[in-house]
Amino acid sequence: MNIHEYQAKQLLAQYGVAVPPGDVCTTADEAKAIAEKLFTKGEKVVVVKSQIHAGGRGKGTFKSGFQGGVKLCKTAADVYEKAKAMLGQVLVTKQTGPEGRLVSKLLVAAAPAIRKELYLAVLLDRATSRPLIMVSTEGGVDIEEVAEKTPEKIVKETIDPAVGIMPYQGRKLAVALGLKGDLIAQGAKLLLGVYKTWWECDAAMVEINPLCIIEGADGKEALVAVDAKIGLDDNALYRHKNIQEMRDLAEEAPLEIEASKFNLNYIKLDGNIACLVNGAGLAMATMDIIQHFGGLPANFLDVGGGASKDQVTAAFKIILSDPNVKGIMVNIFGGIMDCNVIATGIVAAVRETGLKLPLVVRLEGNNVLAGKKTLSESGLTIISGDSMADAAQKVVKAVGK
Amino acid sequence: MAILVTPQSKILVQGITGSFGARHTQLSLAYGTQVVAGVTPGKGGQLFENQVPIFDTVAEAARQTGATISAIFVPPPFAGDAILEAVDAGLDLVVCITEGIPVNDMVKVKRAMQGKKTRLIGPNCPGVVTPGTGKDSYGGCRIGIAPGYIHKKGNIGVVSRSGTLTYEAVWQLTCRGVGQSTCVGIGGDPVNGTSHLDIIKMFNDDPETTGIIMIGEIGGSAEEEAAEWIKMNCKKPVAGFIAGATAPPGRRMGHAGAIVSGGKGTAAAKIEAFKDAGIGIAVTPSEMADTLLKMM
Asked: Which of B24, B126, B246 sits opposite A288 (nearest CB)?
């Protein structure tokens, strides 16, 4: 699960990580009120940031023609104007796709004078099965480009999960970031806080880009997380009630939300051949083989291990609500799953939805004979596939007609 | 010989009284597997299906029955604890079927297992099957959730991250009259106990295994590591398939994750590594068995 920048900053602040003061709002009046407070406290510049689950906001364009989803303002009146131009509008960035995302929340925060931009991330290193902290002096830019062109500018530190992060590791990374004097202790403390956020919230990734050296109100330099992105481990959400509440359904595709209600793993794609498969690996392979024989998969859909009749019916409804779909391939290899349950579900779903599109079914595994019998005795027009390749070729051909 | 397990292996099941664990224990018993004990805290002294004694702890179950291998079916919040209980009891092998364990739990488990003799397969895996010699491979060792009857005793080793793709490969082999030495599902989670490479090394050393099918998928770099070792060391033909060539990028892997693996997570990169190592590439998942058989 992903969360918004303002929510990520709330979590980080709970672990002592410095973030610019500010608040989230849903109306231009609220934005103005937050800005007025910040200006009263002596801030010179305030930033208005669109809250969507996608990067590239600053360089994005609203469908209204308004340029930029992140704006710097020097007066509360300007904040009001900018908020008015952004709220309720659809922002298109390089990460949103052409359909863009509706902006319904803004973060209004202090925008201190930045001396230098740095990069910091915590994630799982799959090669060692241990947490990894990555830092770079090249912040505020696309880190993948840094990794490709100047990999020596990325410094990594592995954390022993039995010990947790030690202060010396924080200092080591602070020095690697080029911090000097008082900022070393400040950087070490911030790194400890970011790591703790990652570990204790069960995050998949915490990324702070940029982490900034700013000029504080007292003229001294300070370290602040100016942007923040947190992705969470879905499997661990059950033990974080506060984070569950951060889920923003408006940021998720409606069909994917519907699918998740039935414990189905569905991802919409651009093709016209829908697939319904058990197992993530087989689901990916089914998409691959449809493409191999000249078709285009309309979705990824894993019905999981113990699919019930209701789940199969729900899966069919979800698939069919995509208007691009012109044919369906069901590919089931029952290990955990009873093929007859699937077959019964298919028959019920076809009857309930009044399916007119070509349907190719390939069943194999647990109780397969009963499953095939259920399909053949249903009186429905269901094309049977003997193997994955056979089924894929048949569905591609049926859709091509 | 086979690897990891033989038809003589004695198995205990953690979570034997849960519906999932119970159902697959019944199937394993029906396959002729030596399931000698179950563990459900608080139900010690009872019998499962009137034949398998249930114990309160793994240590007790192992001591009283001589079981050296555990199959874990307990729900995700308790699975990490269950694995470490089996490790503490000094078992040789733990096969964790449970799907949905928090990643950080597995990070801790893996750290705690360092230096211990126990090997972990999984989690989030279909398990291990060494087929038997009876009808529909009856009499073999089935740990986990794979359909037993699709197997056939023979000489091909199969290793995969995905359950259903493993069954697909096994079934293709069996339909062509070719049997398997052992089939291992290592699981689809980012942190698992045993890698592709660990299993490939075992197959390479197993005199009964004469060919290997390795099935991978996008993400991480375990397939590349295995390919590199195969290139230099493997004496047996290996055929491979990588799932996910058409998967949309960025849906599962975070931004920074791609950096650590240095662009190694894509299907294209993995297929390239396979080719470079002389591994036969199955262009579609329907050709996994044929690709290997052509090489042999």
From this structure: B246
- Give the pLDDT of residue A228: 97
Contact A336 B220 (CB under 8 A): no
CATH topology of domain B152-295: Rossmann fold (3.40.50)
- B181 Cβ contact partners less than 8 Å away, ≥ 6 residues apart: B1, B2, B3, B130, B154, B155, B156, B157, B203, B206, B208, B209
The tens digit of pLDDT for each residue in A255-273 reads: 888 888 888 889 888 899 9
pLDDT digits (tens, 9 = 90+) for A180-199: 999 999 999 999 999 999 99
Nearest Cβ partner for B107 among A131, A205, A335: A131
Rg (CA), chain B: 19
Question: Alpha-carbon distance A348 to A343, whole Å?
Answer: 9
Q: Domain ranges for chain B, please list them.
A: 10-121, 152-295
Whether residue A199 lies within 8 A of chain B, CB to CB, comes out as yes
Domain formed by B10-121, architecture? 3-Layer(aba) Sandwich (3.40)
**B107 CB contacts (<8 Å, ≥6 apart)?**
A124, A129, A130, A131, A161, B191
User: CA of B21: which chain A residue's CA is closest?
Assistant: A336
- Provide the chain B residues 31-70 that lie in CB contact (below 8 A) with chain A: none
Q: How far is CA A237 from CA A91, A200, A233, B121, B215, in A?
A: 29, 11, 7, 25, 30
The nearest CA of chain B is from the CA of A237 a distance in Å of: 9
Question: Do A162 and B111 count as a contact with CB atoms less than 8 A apart?
Answer: yes
| Residues near A295 by beta carbon (within 8 Å), at least 6 away in sequence | A271, A272, A273, A392, A395, A396, A399, A400
Is A289 close to B285, i.e. CB distance below 8 A? Answer: yes
Given a cut of 70, the residues of chain B with pLDDT beneath it are 249-264
pLDDT given at position B253? 30
Segment A193-227, tens digit of pLDDT: 999 999 999 999 999 999 999 987 778 899 999 99
Q: What residue has token string 């139900």?
A: B43
Q: Do domains B10-121 and B152-295 have the same CATH topology?
A: yes
Judged by CB atoms closer than 8 Å, whether chains meet at A281 and B284 is answered as no
